[in-house]
Specification:
312 residues; alpha/beta; five-stranded mixed beta sheet; two-stranded antiparallel ribbon; 11 helices; globular
Length: 312
């Protein structure tokens, strides 16, 4: 009995040591800094500062950065820059030409340096052979630009093992889910709102959070449109996955009058496949999904979306 306890303690010490080593390795990996070369660093710095630029300056700078990235040697850092720029290029209205250059740069960089499939996080969907993997994030970013920003697609890749096509297929499936969704959430005052209960109205569902700069930037435009079209049967439903203690003072300070619903368990976020914010979906008076945005929109862009629901 004494001998068994001794070996049990040895085993426990060994397991704890393994866990400690794993924690140290994980912390070290998280702290590892990306090392930029002399020609990459200025581009990385400019991308980091894009949100601080006026929109008209930002449009030209974004296009220029896309062209500069395209000229870099094919490295992992080049792909980092191309993906980072793509993620910021949709925060507003910077022009179709700018978005096309960004998408072309990302596509060419992926041709130069294709990525392996990523492991599926949720393990759901697909056949047994394919359920453990999904397209790498860079292919999803490119497919998103093509599908939702209407830029020209890159055609087929020779060496991506079908990832770009799979990314487009996944986006199509996500849209089919959103076409027939319903939900029931409570707003900050405790009132329940169901999407199905708003038939006869034009509804804009906006996913956002207090910590999200693009969300905060577009919110005044949503408030303006709500005030302008509310009497014509227009409803904005802002949905946040944060707690009321964070959301309520934020909304009160900014004098937002449209309903703000709470989804702290992310049930509705997950149903809409919201993996980045802000995102907006417009439903017409028959409850049909007629427009959506993958990022921040300007008031002009929101008006174009509402026009598809017959609201002008």
């Amino acid at each position: 009995m004494i001998r068994s306890r001794f070996f049990l303690r040895i085993e426990l010490v060994f397991v704890l040591a393994v866990i400690l080593v794993a924690i140290v390795q994980l912390a070290s990996a998280q702290q590892k800094q990306v090392v930029w070369s002399a020609d990459q660093k200025p581009i990385a710095d400019q991308i980091h500062g894009l949100r601080g630029l006026p929109d008209d300056v930002r449009a030209g700078t974004t296009k220029d950065l896309a062209l500069k990235i395209r000229k870099l040697p094919a490295t992992e850092n080049k792909l980092r820059l191309a993906v980072g720029l793509a993620g910021l290029s949709t925060e507003g209205d910077f022009g179709h030409d700018t978005l096309q250059e960004v998408a072309t740069t990302l596509a060419e960089t992926l041709r130069e340096r294709p990525l392996p499939w990523a492991e599926r996080k949720d393990g759901e969907g697909g056949s047994q052979a394919s359920s453990a993997r999904e397209p790498a994030y860079a292919y999803m970013e490119l497919a998103t630009l093509v599908r939702y920003e209407r830029v020209a697609g890159p055609g087929e890749f020779d060496n991506d093992d079908g990832q770009y096509r799979a990314a487009l297929t996944r986006l199509e499936a996500d849209d089919r889910k959103r076409e027939h969704l319903d939900f029931n959430l409570k707003d900050l005052s405790g009132k329940s709102w169901a999407l199905s209960g708003l038939r006869g109205k034009v509804v804009l569902v906006n996913f956002w959070a207090t910590w999200c700069p693009p969300c905060r930037k577009e919110m005044p435009d949503l408030e303006t449109l709500y005030g302008r079209f509310g009497s014509k049967g227009f409803v904005v439903l802002g949905i946040s996955d944060e707690e009321a203690a964070k959301v309520e003072p934020f909304i009160r300070e900014r004098k937002i009058s449209f309903p703000v619903l709470l989804d702290p368990g992310r049930i509705v976020n997950d149903a809409f496949v919201v993996e980045g914010i802000p995102k907006s979906f417009v439903y017409d008076r028959e409850g049909k999904l007629v427009a959506q945005s993958i990022d921040m929109r300007t008031q002009k862009q929101f008006l174009e979306m509402l026009g598809k629901a017959g609201l002008e």
